[in-house]
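Batch job 17 of 40 flagged for manual review because the log was empty.
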Amino acid sequence: MSEQPVTAPDRQPLDEHAAAALCAYASDQRAKVDALASVLEDIAAHGYPSPETGVLWEDARDSHLKRLAGEEPRVA
């Protein structure tokens, strides 16, 4: 094996608006992951919630679709 350090490929800098949008997206995703992790930790500590306290999947789906319809369009 070579003892020479591996060089990183050149990066293209983002303009400040793109960088701000990317940071906002990362923050949003981090919040969603934190919420999921807390639910999973609660299930691990206390077991599954009873079905009577849950939300029907149809209601959850409809709520999520309404939320998606109200969001700004995003470019992948």
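Reviewer: the log was empty due to a logging misconfiguration, but the result itself is present. The radius of gyration is 21 Å. Unflagging and moving on to job 18.
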